[in-house]
């Protein structure tokens, strides 16, 4: 079977990226869909533009208004939707592979809840700027992940125990978040509620670029560790027999997954459903037992871009937070999945 191999540094091949060519086709189709939807998003709005006008504005031609609308308002939002969606999709693929459970998502384990807690502490106690809130979200996500990992450790970390501990920690953090909102000032509570819904409204290059760089670096590192992740799916004993340090590799992958979800949350707030569903949808597109993180990333990018387009235009001129739309998408997807699995069965 043909394989595309990229060598990134170490001669022993432990950090090579190997992509099976027959699995690239779903990713290529998803990339084309993302490009088409991105062009549609750049055209649509109060100032409707043609494809020629969008192309000219991207190259700095056309009127000042058209260039400003495309390059400064719409393009940062589209680009960040793609990057954040890809980060969420790949993070979900990493955790579902490590935990060997389709529910092993950062949404369920509670890492994005920890990021929300970190942001809430900054908003309610310090009234911080956008970058301080982003830093608080990143610190909160990493701290909650460390807490879950330590509480779940029993001569190693196993999937079901980590999920149960994560749900418990998430419930406690949700209670803490509610208490912080109740005791905050009205202005702080409103700011926290808007941020907590998950939104790309007002996204600019200066706000999104730091998180985008972190997401891209973490995604490259996760792709480099994909061969080791596949060996871990065979079990720790098999991975160790093939020369892969199981616990250390699991810790690195978890750290990368947390970095992805925390960076995405820092940029746009907690966005549900994408990390949970994107790997499962990608797996169905590939018709494979294991999910390719690259395909999951492109699936997440397409889902979030589509959700953001709907958030902007479904109730125009009023815009919804994209997190509201993704939650609705998640509910419909889970309902469809339940009906599909129980269809034809007699009670």
From TrEMBL:
Keywords: Cell membrane, Membrane, Transmembrane, Transmembrane helix, Transport
Pfam families to which the protein is assigned, alphabetical: FecCD
PROSITE patterns: PROKAR_LIPOPROTEIN
PANTHER family: FERRIC ENTEROBACTIN TRANSPORT SYSTEM PERMEASE PROTEIN (PTHR30472), FERRIC ENTEROBACTIN TRANSPORT SYSTEM PERMEASE PROTEIN FEPG (PTHR30472:SF24)
Topological relation to the membrane, as annotated: Multi-pass membrane protein
Protein name in UniProt: Iron ABC transporter permease
Cellular component GO terms, alphabetical: plasma membrane
Signal peptide: none
Organism annotation: Chromobacterium sphagni
GO biological process, one term: siderophore-iron import into cell
Stated family: Belongs to the binding-protein-dependent transport system permease family. FecCD subfamily.
Listed transmembrane segments: 21-42, 78-99, 108-127, 133-153, 160-182, 212-231, 251-278, 319-339
Chief site of localization: membrane
UniProt subcellular location: Cell membrane
Single annotated GO MF: transmembrane transporter activity
Domain of life (superkingdom): Bacteria
């Amino acid at each position: 079977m043909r394989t595309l191999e990229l060598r990134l540094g170490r001669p022993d091949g432990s950090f090579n990226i190997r992509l099976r060519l027959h699995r690239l086709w779903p990713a290529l189709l998803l990339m084309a869909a993302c490009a088409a939807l991105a062009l549609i998003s750049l055209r649509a709005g109060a100032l409707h533009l043609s494809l020629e006008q969008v192309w000219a504005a991207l190259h700095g031609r056309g009127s000042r208004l058209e260039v400003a609308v495309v390059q400064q308002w719409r393009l940062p939002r589209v680009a960040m939707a793609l990057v954040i969606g890809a980060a969420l999709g790949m993070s979900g693929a990493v955790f579902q592979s490590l935990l060997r459970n389709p529910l092993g998502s950062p949404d369920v384990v509670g890492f994005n809840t920890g990021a929300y807690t970190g942001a809430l502490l900054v908003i309610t106690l310090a009234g911080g700027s956008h970058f301080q809130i982003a830093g608080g979200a990143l610190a909160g996500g990493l701290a909650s992940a460390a807490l879950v990992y330590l509480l779940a450790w029993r001569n190693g970390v196993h999937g079901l125990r980590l999920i149960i501990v994560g749900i418990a920690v998430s419930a406690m953090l949700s209670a803490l978040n509610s208490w912080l909102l109740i005791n905050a000032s009205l202005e702080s509570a409103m700011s926290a509620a808007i941020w907590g819904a998950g939104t790309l409204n007002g996204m600019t290059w200066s706000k999104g670029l730091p998180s985008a760089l972190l997401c891209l670096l973490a995604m490259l590192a996760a792709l480099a560790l994909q061969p080791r992740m596949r060996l871990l799916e065979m079990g720790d004993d098999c991975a160790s027999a093939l020369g892969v340090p199981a616990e250390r590799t699991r810790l690195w992958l978890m750290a990368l997954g947390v970095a992805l979800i925390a960076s995405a949350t820092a940029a746009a707030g907690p966005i549900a459903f994408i990390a949970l569903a994107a790997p499962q949808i990608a797996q169905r597109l590939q018709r494979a037992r294991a999910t390719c993180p690259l395909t999951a990333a492109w699936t997440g990018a397409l889902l979030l871009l589509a959700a953001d387009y709907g958030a902007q235009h479904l109730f125009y001129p009023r815009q919804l937070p994209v997190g509201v739309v993704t939650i609705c998408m998640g509910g419909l997807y889970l309902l469809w999945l339940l009906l599909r699995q129980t269809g034809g069965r007699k009670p």
